[in-house]
Each structure stands twice: as structure tokens, then as C-alpha cells.
Amino acid sequence: MKLIIPEMEILENHPFQKDALNRVSFANNLTELIKKIDDPFVLSLNAPWGEGKTTFIKMWLPLLKKEGFHTIYFDAFANDYLNDAFIAIVSEITEYFSEQFKHNKNLDNFLNTSKKVGIQLLGLTGRIAIKAATMGVIKDSDIEMFQEFKEEIAQGSSELIGNVLKDKIENHHQEKQTIITFKKELSDLAASLKNWTENQSTTKLIIFIDELDRCRPSFAVEILEKIKHVFLTKNTVFVLSMHKKQLEEAVKAVYGRGIDANTYLQKFINVETSLPKERSFDQGDDYLKYIYRLSELHDFPVHQELVNYMNELANHFDLSLRQLEKVFLNIILGYLKPDRFKIDALLAFVATIKVCKPKLFQMLLVTKPGGLKMNEIMANCAFDENIDKESDNYHARLKEIKDFLQFCTSGDEAIQEFKSWEEEIQRFNQSRHELIQYHCNLVSSINFNL
Q1: Angle between helices 435-444 and 344-356 (to 10 degrees)
Q2: Could you give phi then psi for residue 215, rounded to 5 degrees?
Q3: Is 139 in contact with 94 (CB distance < 8 Å)?
Q4: The whole model's pTM is what?
């Protein structure tokens, strides 16, 4: 048995070969879309945290490279300590071209203009201001020597600051022209790719911004605004990996709860897409495919009945793939002692709610046997009357889970239909009122944060 899943190996020539969810057709469709749109645009890739956006992007990158595109990957969350989105993105672009193409005149022009834009966009105080003005040439350790200007800056009396303010007032037109020049230099830099790469068929530069929804709200919003107003230009495409609902919260955190965050984001995103998730409740179901892959990766076989319970619970609670990984680890934990009595329906249930309904799990874990009420569990889990439709394939396993919960929580007069279950658990010296708590204890001793 393996606890930690190894990072997926992405093969350069067959990047989607090990993709359990078969998302290569989605990647191909997006590639064709990028090919056919001539204008610069921003595309969003929406999915909740833990659904595999980063993995999908890393599989998609080799496909784009094969089609002749140049791509830059920027982890926004890893860079939000910088406080300045312009510097962060320019640095990523510069590093890419410096490594790929030596002595590129277009890169020199781009850098020179970037310095001018950096000075325009910098704040009047602080470490980032100095780094922006020097495009990172002055390191953090060197900035200490500038601390003697701190009081002057705070009082607004520094001659340097005064000159900057004067220039910004007198040279507004020139500053706008600098932004226009910057966009042209970036466009020319992307266009130069044809001259620097054999068999290059496109001049488009695709810049991926990943983990945008995990950034500090101010940094996430600044990235959006800088892309729109500074970076988006001819020959460029930006792909934003994000959870839209979470990003909307970031917008509200910056501009107030009264803002229409959805409309705000539409100003910055031209094409919205969502990472597909197949919900067919059969062998084509993405949850089902991922459970089989987890069984393979953890070297832990699970029988089909348990797989079916996990699949229906994952669909019912709309788990992310990351959550499903934790559920699977809880199942493994429950089976560490294979000789111990267990009911798969209840084990799958408690393993799932431990991940997605932790408060309910704690309640089930500590409530005295017989003290639980079925209506409390039903309300917390959003189980409804549809589960009783036995003819509905999707609800078949959920109905069994509901029946077991009913069996564990009902009074003696209400369990005639579960008489055979009562006899079965007595063979293992178990009390039905203790079964839920017993299964919670099977998975409660360890928490997985992988």
C-alpha cells in the first residue's frame, strides 16, 4: 500500500496518456479555439480548488508546444509576496526569453520599455517601489541603504518624490505613450518567435496564470487589471486558471460587497470555459474513473460494492478530486485492520462526511449511542425523498446508505424491515445504535493533509 501518490509523469510526446479523466479532447478543442481567434484575448479555465486545473495545464502545455506555440507558466500564488503584479509578470516573460533566445534585440527593447513602465506604475514608498524602478537589479539586501530616505518619503518632502509627482502631472501624455510602446514591444517580441524557432507556425505567445484564486485579493485583482490595461496586446493570449466564485470574493474584498463581481470579471475575461467533469453515473463517470486510478496508485484494491458507494456519495456531495483522494485515504484507514467488523455503506459514508461535513462527523463521533436523530443527519446531508426511488440507478446506493442510517437511529418498534441486519450484527457482538460511532472511530484517528 502507498500513502503518497507520486506526481503524475507527463510524457512530452503523449502528455495525456496517464490522464484517468480523458480530458485530451477538451485540450484539443481549446487549442483549436486559440488557433482560430486572431485577436488577443483572455481565456478563463474555471473549476473549484482540487479539481486538477494545474495538472490539466501541465498536460496541455506539451500539446501547445507541438502545435508551434510558445508558452509561459506563471504561478500567481507563488509570486503574490512580491506585491507588484507588473514586476512579477514582466520578470517571468524576461526569464523565458532570456533562457530560450540569446541576444534577442526585441527582448532588449522590451526590457528598456518595461523599466519605464515600471517607474510609472510603482508606488511612492516601500521596497517594491525601488525594485520596480530598477527592474530587480537592486536586491532586498541592497535596499537597506535607502532607509535614510524613509522620513523624507513619509513627509512627502523628498526631492526625488517631488520630481516624480511633477513629472507625472506634466508628462501624462508621454506616460500613456509609454504604455502603448510597451504593448508594441511585447507584441514584437512575440512576433519575433518565428525568426528564432525552426518550423514556427504561429506568432502567438500564450501566458498561463495559474492559482489566481488562491492569491491575496489585492494581488489577484491587480493581476487582472494589469493584464487588461498593460499586457494584453497583439500576438498574446492569456489563460487564467481559477475558481470563479472564489475570485469574485476577492473582487468584493477589494471593492466592497456591493460590487457586481460577476460583471466586473466579464470586463477582463473574453472567453469563459470550465474544466469538464463527466457525471454519467456509469463507467464513464469521472469519479468512478478516478476511484479506479486511486486504487491503482495506492496499490489498494477495493471491491465493486464499495466503489459504487464512494461514487454515489462523491456525486451527491459534489466532491472535488482532491476531496475524493482524502475519502479514499479514509477508506484505507478503515481497512488497516481487515479482520474488524465493518459495513461498507457506513464506512463509505463516514469517510466522506469526515472530508466534506467535518462538523457532522464530529457530532456523529461524540454523540452517545441512541442519541442521534435521523432527521438531523438527513438535513445535514441534504438527503431527500428522491433517494427512495429504487428504480433510479443513481439513488440505489444512496438509498442503501439511508436505510443503514435509519436502522442505526430508529427505535426498536421501527426496525422490522431490517430484522435480518439485526441478526447479522449480533453475530459480531455489535449494537446497531453504536454502529455509526463505531465506523467513525475506524477513520477518526488520523487526518490526511496531502
Answers
A1: 60
A2: -75, 165
A3: no
A4: 0.76
Q: How are beta strands 70-75 and 205-210 bridged, if at all?
A: parallel
What is the rounded (10 degree) CA torsion for 153, 156, 161, 163? -160
Q: Which amino acid is at 285?
A: D
Model confidence at 137, pLDDT cuts 50, 70, 90, reads very low
Asked if residue 277 lies in contact with residue 51, where contact means CB atoms within 8 angstroms, the answer is: yes
Contact at 8 Å (CB) between 131 and 84? yes
CB 76 within 8 A of CB 246: no
Residue 42: closest CA among 243, 276, 225 = 225
Residue 391 one-letter amino acid: S
Residue type present at position 220: A
Cell of 2: 502507498
Q: Which residue has the cell 491575496?
A: 216
Contact 235, 78 (CB under 8 A): no
| Residues 6+ away with beta carbon under 8 Å from 101 | 107, 192, 196
Sheet holding 236-242, edge to edge: 70-75, 205-210, 236-242, 41-46, 271-274
Contact 53, 277 (CB under 8 A): no
How far, in Å, CA of 276 to CA of 292, rounded?
A: 19
In the prediction, which pLDDT does 291 show? 93
Contacts of 41 (CB under 8 A, 6+ apart): 232, 237, 238, 270, 271
The grid coordinates of residue 299 equal 496499490
What value, to the nearest 5°, has the Cα angle with vertex 385 and ends 368 and 330? 50
Joined together, the cell numbers standing for residue 363 give 457530532
CA distance 75 to 78: 5
Residue 117 burial (10 A CB sphere; 0-12, 13-18, 19+): buried
CA nearest neighbour of 331 among 315, 359, 308: 308
Q: Do 397 and 309 contact (CB within 8 A), yes or no?
A: yes
Is residue 397 very low, low, confident or very high in pLDDT (cuts 50, 70, 90)?
confident
- Is the Cβ–Cβ distance between 35 and 203 less than 8 Å? no
Single-letter amino acid, residue 293: R
Q: What is the separation of C-alpha 207 from the centre of its chain, rounded to a whole number of angstroms?
A: 17
> Rounded to 10 degrees, what is the CA torsion of 382, 385, 388, 389?
-110
